[in-house]
Amino acid sequence: MKRESVMEDREGSRKRKRAGRCRRKTDNNPSHLNKQISEAHPANVPQPKQDSSNLKTSHKASKTLSFLDKMKARLAGGHFRMLNEKLYTCTGKEALEYFKEEPELFDMYHAGYQEQMSHWPELPVNIIIKWLKDYGSSLVVADFGCGDARLAKNVKNKVFSFDLVSNDPSVVACDMSNTSLDSESIDVAVFCLSLMGTNFSSYLQEAYRVLKPGGWLLIAEVKSRFDPTSGGADPNNFTKAICELGFSSVSKDFANKMFILFYFKKKEEQNSTKKKKKKDIEWPELKPCLYKRR
């Protein structure tokens, strides 16, 4: 009897172990778990699939807009390059008449100009602004070719701003070789990337006329225009011509890779025997600054 009892106990133990293993397998079965979750939460309804046709339409519309934006930018860039070349290859008087007929082209030009300047690591107008702040707000300034009049908006000095077209009451539209300023009434004359016309020397002659003796002439120009190895003018010949006009050279700044800064002062007294007549000065040719397509 004892032997039969022991056998029964062993058989019962085996059955219990097999039942335990079956439960563990069932608990670890993912499909079983999913079935349990589904039965426990009958309200869980699968999310509807997103309409793939809507996604395709949205993607196509996005690509179309991107293409149109690129085409508009390319068209605007083409207009800017055309206008830029025009300004470099005509006189100031011709440019004034050109923009008088179609003033909206001037806005187009300046929009393109601002886009080009956005790629420069440093802007020359900001250096001139700092220079004026260092020298004091009492100096009266004439900004020849002022553009958006950034100079006047960022200093406390009295600034006379001149350009070919004016959409701003503070900017005077004129030919820069013939301004309304009185002779010897200005302390600082500024040309910031604005010696563009074929008659640029007449702009500098006008600056000489309006500057007081001892007044400053500040010129910032694109560096490539003064690179003799690529058809540009020799900066020394440019400086020499301005000195013959009646200025003395104070300094040149070649540090920036994009532009050069020239600093001159109008001579206090002119020696009539040394001063050349305006028509006898040999002005170097400044090549046009033509921007490449991006």
TrEMBL record:
<keyword id="KW-0808">Transferase</keyword>
<dbReference type="Pfam" id="PF05148">
    <property type="entry name" value="Methyltransf_8"/>
</dbReference>
<comment type="similarity">
    <text>Belongs to the methyltransferase superfamily. RRP8 family.</text>
</comment>
<dbReference type="GO" id="GO:0008168">
    <property type="term" value="F:methyltransferase activity"/>
</dbReference>
<dbReference type="InterPro" id="IPR042036">
    <property type="entry name" value="RRP8_N"/>
</dbReference>
<keyword id="KW-0698">rRNA processing</keyword>
<dbReference type="InterPro" id="IPR029063">
    <property type="entry name" value="SAM-dependent_MTases_sf"/>
</dbReference>
<dbReference type="GO" id="GO:0005730">
    <property type="term" value="C:nucleolus"/>
</dbReference>
<keyword id="KW-0804">Transcription</keyword>
<keyword id="KW-0805">Transcription regulation</keyword>
<dbReference type="GO" id="GO:0032259">
    <property type="term" value="P:methylation"/>
</dbReference>
<keyword id="KW-0949">S-adenosyl-L-methionine</keyword>
<feature type="compositionally biased region" description="Basic and acidic residues">
    <location>
        <begin position="1"/>
        <end position="12"/>
    </location>
</feature>
<dbReference type="GO" id="GO:0006325">
    <property type="term" value="P:chromatin organization"/>
</dbReference>
<keyword id="KW-0156">Chromatin regulator</keyword>
<keyword id="KW-0539">Nucleus</keyword>
<comment type="function">
    <text>Probable methyltransferase required to silence rDNA.</text>
</comment>
<feature type="region of interest" description="Disordered">
    <location>
        <begin position="1"/>
        <end position="61"/>
    </location>
</feature>
<keyword id="KW-0489">Methyltransferase</keyword>
<feature type="compositionally biased region" description="Polar residues">
    <location>
        <begin position="28"/>
        <end position="37"/>
    </location>
</feature>
<feature type="compositionally biased region" description="Polar residues">
    <location>
        <begin position="47"/>
        <end position="56"/>
    </location>
</feature>
<keyword id="KW-0678">Repressor</keyword>
<dbReference type="GO" id="GO:0006364">
    <property type="term" value="P:rRNA processing"/>
</dbReference>
<protein>
    <recommendedName>
        <fullName>Ribosomal RNA-processing protein 8</fullName>
        <ecNumber>2.1.1.-</ecNumber>
    </recommendedName>
</protein>
<feature type="compositionally biased region" description="Basic residues">
    <location>
        <begin position="13"/>
        <end position="24"/>
    </location>
</feature>
<dbReference type="InterPro" id="IPR007823">
    <property type="entry name" value="RRP8"/>
</dbReference>
